[in-house]
Structure formats: structure tokens, C-alpha cells
Design a protein that fits this description.
Layout: H1 15-30, E1 37-38, H2 50-63, H3 80-94, E2 103-106, H4 109-115, E3 125-130, H5 135-141, E4 146-151, E5 170-174, H6 186-198, E6 202-206, E7 232-237, H7 239-242, E8 250-253, E9 259-260, E10 263-264, H8 265-276, H9 282-291, H10 294-320, E11 325-327, E12 333-337, H11 342-353, E13 355-356, E14 358-359, E15 370-374, H12 379-393
Parallel strand pairs: 1-13, 3-4, 3-5, 5-6, 6-7
Antiparallel strand pairs: 2-8, 7-8, 9-10, 11-12, 12-15, 14-15
Helix pairs in contact: 2-9, 3-9, 4-5, 10-12
Bound molecules: pyridoxal-5'-phosphate.
Amino acid sequence: MVRVNTNYKNLKQNYLFANIAKKLSDYTAAHPTAKIIKMGIGDVTQPLSIPVVEALVKASFEMGVKETFRGYAPDEQGYSFLKLSIADYYKNNSNVDLDEREIFVSDGAKSDVANFTDLFSNDNTIIIPDPVYPVYLDSNIMLGRKIILINGNDANGFLPLPTEGLQGDIIYLCSPNNPTGAVYTKDQLKQWVDFAIDRNAVILFDAAYEAFISDSDLPRSIYEIPDAKRCAVEFCSLSKTAGFTGTRCGYTIVPEELIVDGESLNNMWMRRQTTKFNGTAYIIQRAAEAVFSKEGLESCKTIIDYYRGNAKIMTDTMSKLSIWHTGGLNSPYVWMKCGMDSWEYFDTLLNDINIVGTPGSGFGRCGAGYFRLTAFNTRENTIEAMERFSKLFK
Ligand code: PLP
């Protein structure tokens, strides 16, 4: 008889977005003319930039011509043209040297973050900050692993650090953080790198929002910390950097000097990917290459600046209203204190000012009493949403 992986029974049903959708549809059924402003979704709203679209079109035409048609890629881990562009990006932004063989191109950070857990034995203990992007927790629950949640709260700025007595083998860090927008400083990341090296642990560092960092002192890559290549894997994505949420492209850095339990994680990840993944589409890799061109980077910066402008309008409003908040400055997320239960706050915003956000409790127990708003809406809607906030909380 077939048996299923019973660890799946330990997953909490993800009611968060289903609940939001249900509450929203009930409200709109009762109030069909209400102008709802959605500030809950983590999806982008601005289209792909022109250099990216041009690259997509050019590559698509190449695929229709016998001489330039491409089938299976020679390397599942990505074409050299893209890996070299990514290496240049790291050199220019973070002064980090990467060898092409350390870069693995994928269809996005979510799958890589979840799949990377394949490389580790199930008797490892996993350290996960709370609140955080739910994929880390769920992908380890699926494997039945022991998980230690470390608390983010307003005392530590939602940036938990290693503490006396903390024991674990694999540490997930997300900076800038989803949902709180908090960003680790170099000193703070160094504490994690030292902790990992001391204990032969591995850091899985999610840098999906690195492009939003505007403060030049803050690290955009964990490899800005000396010795991090000995203990950390880094995941990144073009979803928020370049509007690729629907186009799908990400990349994972597995340093060659990262040796765990006598094994090279780079070799293991290569073996895993060549067995279970057949590469990211050629046309998408050409589009991703265009993101890293001079024109592409300028266009992406214009779009990110637009979202940053939204975030500033939001945080200025919160400050004026004396609402405790963090994030926004180096992140598209603004994380605010509700002064009540997160779901009660959700209902208040929906019913009183027709604004939809995300209850913080959906990202972990330490998110209870907090709320996430995103800067991904249009400028007009963001301004209007903040005017409504000002009226409600004046
Ligand atoms: N990592 C974090 C922290 C995210 O918030 C998200 C998406 O919301 C992802 C990874 C997923 O990125 P991708 O679209 O590349 O799969």
C-alpha cells in the first residue's frame, strides 16, 4: 500500500491569503461600489522595462530561426552570458568576486530556497526567524525536521541575533526581510557568520529584496562579510528587482569553498540540479541578461525608485500619525504595530477605509499585533490610501 509523507499533516493550512480573499469578496459583494485599495500583495505592478522586453523579443525570434534555435541548454545551471553578468553585478554592487561555477540560474528563488533543503540530512536542527517568509518553515516541516524559531520583535528591530546557548545546524536569514522590511547591518551579519563557522552550521541567506537597499552601508550580499563563503549559500531573484514575478528567473550562489560534513555543497547542488532540473528557458535568460545591462539596470532603478517613493509616502504618513513602524526605507514592505489583533486591524481598515493589507500573524506568532503594507501599488493609490489612513487615525 502506498504511504504518503505524513509530515504534510503537520503543515498548518495556509489560511492567510484565502482568508483575505474571502473577507474581500464578502465585502465587495455587500459594497459593490467601494473603491478598495490593495496593499497586501507582494506582487509588483510596474511592467517589465523596455530593454528586457526587447531582449525577450529578440530571443524569441532567434528561437524561430534554424541557425539560432536553442534546445536543451548545454549547462542546466545557466548560460555563461547570464552567469558572467551576475558575477559583474556582484563585483560592482558588493565588491564580491564570484566564479561562474558558483552561480546557478533558476526559475526563481522560491523553488531554490525550498529545494536546497534536499542536500541536508533530516536530523539537522533548523533555525528560522519569526516572523518570516513562510517557505522556510513549511519546506522543513515537510521533511519532519526539528525547527527552532527565534523571535523577531520591536526590541531587536525584527533582526534576531545568535544568543548564548542557541544550537542549530541550518540558519535561514532574510534581509531585507519579508514581511518586516528590516535589514541586517554588516556587524549583525558578521555575528551570524561567526556563529555558523564556530558550529559548522550553514546559513541560507535570502537576498530577494537586495535591490531595494539604498543605504550604502548595509550589505546587499552576505559575501560582503569576510569568511561568509565558508558558511553561506545566497538566494536571489529578479522578481522584485526587475518585475520578473511572472517571467520567472532567480539565481543561487553556492561558493566553491563551502564544504559541509566533508562534502562540497557546490558539487552536491550541481548533482541535484542536473538530476532534477533542465534549466531556465533561453529567452528568459536573455531577458535576465538585459536586466544587468547598463540600460537594464538604469530602468530597474527607475522602477525601484518609484516603489521607494511609495514607501516614503507611507512611512512619512505613519510617522506623522505616530504609528510604530519599521521597513520601507530599504525595502518595499512597511511593517506596523496595530495596537490590536492583526485580523481586527484588517477588518477595521477594510470596513472603515477600504484598504487591504496583510495581518502580521500570518507570518509567524511574533507577527501577531503587527500588519504588513506593501509599496507595490501605484503612486495615485498609495497617496489616496495614506490620505484615508490620515483621516482614520488623526
Ligand atoms: N524570497 C522572499 C523573501 C520572498 O518574499 C519571495 C517572494 O515573495 C521569494 C523569495 C520568491 O521569489 P521568486 O519569485 O523568485 O520565486
